[in-house]
Amino acid sequence: KVVLTTTTTTGVRRRGNARATGTTTTRGGRHMARANAPKMSPPDAKSLVDATETFIFDCDGVIWKGDSLIEGVPETLDLLRSMGKRLIFVTNNSTKSRAGYTSKFKSLGLNVGAEEIFSSSFAAAAYLESIGFKKKAYVVGETGILEELDNVGVQHIGGEADAGKQVTLKSGELMHHDEDVGAVIVGFDRNINYYKIQYATLCIRENPGCLFIATNTDAVTHLTDAQEWAGNGSMVGAIKGSTKQEPIVVGKPAAFMLDYIANKYSLRKDQICMVGDRLDTDILFGKDGGLRTMLVLSGVTTEETLKSPENDIAPDFYTDKLADLLCLKPVEA
């Protein structure tokens, strides 16, 4: 029997190697541990790749930004595959299912199979399946969650069907909700509205034992390559505020997806490297899980943020972009 673990937003696991050791500074009476992370050199790259059997890549900010492929990614993935490395792609973006992400990879010219993709929409469905969930789920989110719930046979309501619904707040108005809903899943939703917030709130507060599941709590996301946009944390925050409950988080940095992947492929975690662009999700996900970690500066995190006295999360290495691993490519005679 496979035992899969989850954490709440207030219960993210911390391991001894999750936080940086380095110079201690004082700010406002608080002691801060400055993160010490070396910039990856070619010898560092060789050592890291040699010690790694499986690479787990975040997508937004590592593979692409919005709908634009980041320079050098196809060649880097081809190089790692030619070296016999297993490649897995993990994203907190719940708007697409694995089938949807397979299509996106294909549209960008990348040959990635559905079995190599783990999205937070998949993680939400997999979590419900792992606990033998038999009730209905109410979804604040988009088609990715709905498709993944269909794949595991979980009945669902809400989602895109509630996109245009409005609340008039007339005198005496009462919103009815389905008492058979046993879980509310909150994922990124470009059509979030007051109706959805109220319906989710009623289910969580009034249906005994109703689960509150968040695909992730990311503050921002890359919907386009032009700027950052408010992330799923804003949707989850609305429901947290109205219910006064903490969600079960199934996306990064919670442990569920990593445990699922490691169990599925019988992986040793000390032979996995997590590659991401976010300190508080990707790198913390790797550190908490006992993985090697590599931060790329092609997404959210800047070198200034990494080296800030306010940051105490240190990757094993950092580099400008994933394609910096191409330094390992054999030189043709």
UniProtKB/TrEMBL annotation:
Listed Low complexity bias regions: 1-11, 18-27
GO cellular component: chloroplast
Binding site for substrate: K252
Stretches the record annotates as Disordered: 1-44
Any coiled-coil regions, as ranges: none
GO terms of molecular function: metal ion binding; phosphoglycolate phosphatase activity
One Pfam entry name: Hydrolase_like
Enzymatic reactions: 2-phosphoglycolate + H2O = glycolate + phosphate
Oxidoreductase as UniProt keyword: no
Key words of the record: Acetylation, Chloroplast, Hydrolase, Magnesium, Metal-binding, Phosphoprotein, Plastid, Transit peptide
SUPFAM superfamilies the UniProt entry points to: HAD-like
UniProt-listed InterPro entries: HAD-like_sf, HAD-SF_hydro_IIA, HAD_sf, PGP_euk
Superkingdom to which the source organism belongs: Eukaryota
Co-factor remark: Divalent metal ions. Mg(2+) is the most effective.
Residues involved in Mg(2+) binding: D58, D60, D277
Active site: D58, D60
EC number assigned by the record: 3.1.3.18
Cited function: Photorespiratory enzyme that dephosphorylates the 2-phosphoglycolate produced by the RuBisCO oxygenation reaction.
UniProt name for this protein: phosphoglycolate phosphatase
Organism name: Ostreococcus mediterraneus
Taxonomic lineage: Eukaryota, Viridiplantae, Chlorophyta, Mamiellophyceae, Mamiellales
